[in-house]
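Students often ask why we bother encoding 3D structure as a string. The short answer is that it lets us treat folding as translation between two languages. Here is a chain of 350 residues written in the first language.
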Amino acid sequence: MDFFAHQDLARRNTRLLIAYYALAVALIVVAVYAVIALLLGVAGGEEDVSRPFWDPALFAVTAVALLAVIGLGTFFKVRQVARGGDFVARMLGGVRVDPSTEDPTERRLVNVVEEMAIASGIPAPAVYLLDERGINAFAAGLSTGDAVIGVTRGALAQLNRDELQGVIAHEFSHILYGDMRLNLRLMGVLHGILMIALTGYFLLRSSLYAPVRRSSRRDRDGGGRMAIIALGVALMAVGYIGVFFARLIKSAVSRQREFLADAAAVQFTRNPAGIGGALKRIAGHATGSRIGHKEAEEASHLFFANGLASAWLGLLATHPPLEERIRRIDAGLADGPAPGPAESPPPIPE
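And here it is in the second language, the structure alphabet:
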């Protein structure tokens, strides 16, 4: 494999997918404007029959309002994850590993992280352990200064040293090439689009449970309330459809970056069998790479391998199929035997 050419292709595809993301937001604005314009036409009655569907002023107000909602939702989530990789690791239930630990398994992990830090030329990040049986890992943070690497206990128990090194090298690629920053921004933008659906839910709920003022003919007729209910339902529908497509694009972005990180891991370790063996071990493991934590869905695109139980016909899979990843690393590995039992780390001398 030409790893440099593969990295360039992954970057180009990522830029294209981010452009699709911006297009999805634009289509959400258009859809919501169309709903509002139709509702205004219906609410206006016969005297508003001649009202033009296209109203630049109304479109501008709608666009500004929606972008403000998305922006505030994004700002809230970005501010939350801006606390650094430590926040994300703890959000997922991680416990920090003492750099001077004497536990043999944890010591091996710390040593491998330090080796990959030297190979990639960046500072060694803090290391967290997740109490999960699945074989997985992640990198999180906004810069090399606040980056962390998280590894599941399943990975430590099941992977030998070369395989663990390949997984850690993959995560260092996410740090080195800015993927972890992109991933956190994707979390923020996705939450911003979700805010549209939540706004619709608020309008719907407030309209259904608001007291009726009988002194008002408009309220008695229910025209204003029905218009707000219709707008709330429309915002919920458009918002959740937007979230679906946002997750679709997020997953596509993540899949491209995984190929890039796999290629970089081979560059760092000079050992395709390491990361390839880790992927084959996941394929043969009973729990695979599954993460059971309640926040796993939100952070699904951060992991080394798919951490979710299902991915809706594969469209929302945040990672490429294991077989394809193995084949791109080394076609010979895909047809080779499954890796043997993981080696136990040597005990630390007294």
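Translate back mentally: Residues 346-350 have pLDDT under 50 and may be disordered. Keep this in mind for the problem set.
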